[in-house]
Structure formats: C-alpha cells, structure tokens
Amino acid sequence: MRAVAAFAVCVTHAAFWAGDYTPDLWGAAYSRLQAAVPVFFALSGFLLVRPWVAAARSTVRGGAAGRDGAVGRDGVSGRRGGGRDGAGTAGPDLRRYAVHRAWRILPAYWTVVTVVYVIYLWRPDGSTHGQGWVGYVRHMTFTQIYGVGYVHTGLSQMWSMCVEFAFYLVLPLLGAAIVRCGPRAWIVPAAMVALSVGWLVLVIETNVFGKTTRTWPPAYAAAFAAGIIVALVIDRVRAASWERWARWGLLLAAAAAFAVLLTPAAGPLDLRLPTTAQGVTKYLLEALIGGLLVAAFAVGRPGVLGSRPMVWLGSISYEYFLIHVIAMDVVVINVLHYSLFQGSTWTIVAVTSLVTVPLAWVLSRAVERLRARASAR
C-alpha cells in the first residue's frame, strides 16, 4: 500500500509540473491523488496503535495488558515491562517504540534534507524560501511548516513528515487513553475527528495562525483516526468471516468517496482557498478514503499487494517519497528540459521513478547497515 501511495504522490506532483491540473475529469483525478498522503497517515494510525489496542483488550478480559505480539518493522513490542499508562496497566515498551521510530525516519530524512541543501549551494534556486541555516534547522527539526517561507525547493513534500512526526510524539498519550477507555476506546478517534473539524473551521474562517495552518497536524487528525478505527474493529470483521465480500465493499466505498472528492463539493482543484464547508469535506473524504483502503487490505489475503515486487517496492517507498521531488526537479529541468506547466505527466513519472527507485534502494540499504552496526555495538 505504501508503494502505491508513494507512486500516486509522484504522479500528482508530475501532473502539476506538466500543467495537467485541467478543469476536467482527468485533471481533477490528477489533483486529488493528493489523497494518497492521508493514506500514509491512516496506515500509521492502524499499524502503530495496535499494541495499545491489544493492551486495552487484555485489560477488558482481565488479563495482563500488552502480552499480544509485536508488530514487525513498523510496530512496537507489546511485552510486559513497558511504559505504564494512566490506569496502571503495562503497555508497549515506549523506549523500544521511540528507538524504532527514530531509526525508521530520521537517518533517511536527515540525509535527504542535507543532500538537497548541499545541492543547492551550487544549483540555481528561483525561490528565496527555506534558505540558510534557519531553513536547514527548521527542516531537520520538522518545524518548517510552522510559518511562511521555510520550505526549501526540492523538499516541498516534507510537510507530511512534520505531521507524521507530531503523531509519533502524541501516540503514547493516545494509546494510554485507548487503554484507559477500554470498551469505549472509540472515544479517542472520535475526539480526533472532532479536532480536525474544529481546527479546519477555525483556520479557514479566521486565518488566525497564518497561511500554513491547513498542513498542521490537527488538520489531519481525522486521517490518523481512520486508521485507529480500523485497528479497533478489524478483528470483529475477521471473526465474522466477512472477508469474502468486505474487501470489495470497502474498495467500492473508497471509489465512491474519491468520486465525490472530484466534485466542487471538495473545493477548487488549483491553489485557490476552499470555503469552510469545502475544506472540511475534502479533509474528511481523504481520511475516509485512507481508512477504507487500509481496512480493505487488512482483511483476507493480500493479493497482488502481497507479491514480491510490491513488497520490495513497499520496503523502499519511504525513501522513494523522500527523494522523488528533488529527483523530479532535476529530471524536468535538466534532463527533459520542460518549462513549468509543460511536458508529459507520464514521461516525468517514468524518468523520475527510473532515477528515484535505485537511489531509494541505496539509501534504504545504507540505513539498514548503519542500524545493524549500531545494534552490534
């Protein structure tokens, strides 16, 4: 799923470069592929909250919380001896959680940010944003979205990493709330959806905190909540043996939500500001799509997404996401010699991916080797 989502992000960026955000169905579809980013958020919500969900269920059953198994590369241990939530129940090991998250995102992210800044010591940059040490420190600390003028060329997609990073920081608190609420754990994602709606109404109506507020973490709380909801209900779906028709129903529902996203109800396709109703509708539809897609592939067999090529692409999808914008900038300007709003979307996608995939693999392998050496020490 991450591989598909990362590719969709690349396509929407290429379509913007090529000027294909046209006022027709194809232009709308290209533009709304931005919904792939909330899919990442829903995936994070689903994968990372599961140890706390397991702890909550163990508490309800009267057992020792957190004994349910670990969650693989993107999860944390559910073994006893971890951090304590407010109810005094043993939850996931927060130190292990922090170490896993740090290794997963920081080395690759810091490497790409640093390389981009070094490249632009020589490469001409038509933008004055994000320049100098202030811009660099902002990017390295995931704070470039908090204010206007800090996003550097080649790093525009990193706003989503600021949102992800904020979620990683607050997840232990959300998890503790889920464990404390027990059978009423749905209150937590419901509160997150309410936060998104309230935040969007506030910042669109008043512009109180400036122009960048629609990319701040509260705006996307509903997308993470969608993944958390899936984590809370998925076992019931499996237990009810709904897998045969559940996936197709969920995929059809996601397609219907995406169709609504193409309409004026979700706001303009270009950079014009939406009305409050349009903004809220757009963000909630994107969260719904993310949750439906995660749910669709969390039930039953993985199908084509479980094939070896897709699993391999998924394993480097994060690095692909980090690199593709600077690669696209070089490809469009220096290789294809396109001007802005000219050229072919799919030519840009193909050449950019041809460059980005091997670079993403090298970066992923380098981080894995670095981590192995650190673990050995």
UniProtKB/TrEMBL annotation:
Say if the entry is tagged with keyword Transmembrane: yes
Q: Which residues cross the membrane?
A: 30-49, 105-122, 158-179, 186-204, 216-234, 246-263, 283-300, 321-340, 346-367
Q: What is this protein called?
A: Acyltransferase 3 domain-containing protein
* Superkingdom to which the source organism belongs: Bacteria
Quote the Pfam families the UniProt record gives: Acyl_transf_3 (PF01757)
Respond yes or no to whether keyword Iron-sulfur is given for this record: no
Q: Which PANTHER family does this chain map to? A: ACETYLTRANSFERASE, ACYL_TRANSF_3 DOMAIN-CONTAINING PROTEIN
Q: Give start-end positions of Gly residues composition bias.
A: 78-88
Q: Which stretches does the entry tag as region Disordered? A: 63-88
Give UniProt keywords alphabetically: Membrane, Transmembrane, Transmembrane helix
Question: Which residue range or ranges hold the Acyltransferase domain?
Answer: 1-365
